[in-house]
Amino acid sequence: MFNRDKWSEIIEALSSNWFRTLLTAFGVLWGIFILVILLAAGKGLENGVKQGFGGMATNTMFMWTQTPSKPYKGLPKGRRYNFKTGDVTAIKQNVPDLRFVSPRNQLGGFGGANNVVRGLKTGAFNVYGDYPEVIQQEPMDITSGRFINYSDINEKRKVAIIGEGVHKEMYETGEEVIGSYIKINGVNFMVIGTYKKKGNNNGDAEEAQKQIYVPFTAFSQAFNMGDIVGWMAITANDGTSITELKDKIFEVIKSRHTIHPEDDRAIGNFDLYQEFSKVNGLFVALKGVAYFVGILVLLSGIIGISNIMLIVVKERTNEIGVRRALGATPWSIRGQILMESIFLTIISGMAGIALATGLIAIINYQLDGMDTSDMMFANPSVDLGVVFVALSILIISGLLAGLIPAQNAIKVQPVDALRTE
């Protein structure tokens, strides 16, 4: 395979009409270029969408109460009920493979009335009563101070962590935040930290920075919630799907609140894992489309190479006849044609990969200087696996492109070939 004379002959054959060879090689170059760019663009879109989840624990379900749709054990349908703190303990005890069961309460909301006062400034913000685990379910960067801990929970400390948006609206530039006080619905809370949410939070990045977190126990005491739980964020252990555990969780709640076992409307839920799985499925489909389109474009280039090799074989009929007359075996003739085809395919394909890689590097260089947190596109790239797949496609394509011309070459009889002008 590494015979010097053979390679010299291949290079001489391909360079004898360099313009024709260049045009032929461009088809393969363009096909592999399109394939790599499509895969990189799909990866960039996937990175951007997953970035929007902000590192959130995707194996999580959010659960809240709704009105039962069926009467049960003398209780009417349409009644209202609330989760209780005892439900949290019951779920932990009866449903295995749960990592976090976080009860939450909330004040305020989008378009709500002003509920936070500091000096002469007022604002309307979402205020959450939470446990420390919430920072692992909804990751955020603590920009100063600290987050809630269990000492705050156990001692019912009236402390608060505010978002950067709250900081900007309620404080002057350069004003000290840590240790200051804000009044939430008439109750003073001391600020112990500030945060900035990760990701674009599904397009609500600005609103996500305008939230306030306080200890669940202090929230319940300050706002007379008793043992009421507004809603829960429940995360399963790694390797276990929260979707598979939902029914067991619902069974515990229905049993504790006398809800009909077949009432599917009494408990509202949002399964983040299920939605995330749909997103992953979408990107698998996009990758398949990218391979399909790229290979089709590449196929047109391969057909071009096969046609050119047929012409080359026709032009070298006399040469093939002489070689056959001098004792060349059919396999040596076939191997020569196949090597020329594979060589041309791989060289043009590698040029396409290099060109696509250069373009991807330029795009990433431009993105590095931009804030991509609010974008649905980030870090387009291809891994080594894609490169190996591309190389495999090139080798197989080269073999296919040269197969028919090679078979035609060995069918030429030496006497007929020598008579051909």
From TrEMBL:
Pfam family, one: FtsX
Domain ABC3 transporter permease C-terminal: residue ranges: 292-414
UniProt keyword Transmembrane helix, yes or no: yes
Subcellular location: Cell membrane
Transmembrane segments: 21-41, 289-313, 342-365, 385-404
Record's bilayer topology term: Multi-pass membrane protein
Limits of the MacB-like periplasmic core domain: 21-249
Assigned keywords, A-Z: Cell membrane, Membrane, Transmembrane, Transmembrane helix
Chief location bin: membrane
InterPro entries: ABC3_permease_C, MacB_PCD, Macrolide_Exporter_MacB
Keyword Hydrolase in annotation: no
Family note: Belongs to the ABC-4 integral membrane protein family.
Record protein name field: ABC transporter permease
Organism (species): Gillisia lutea
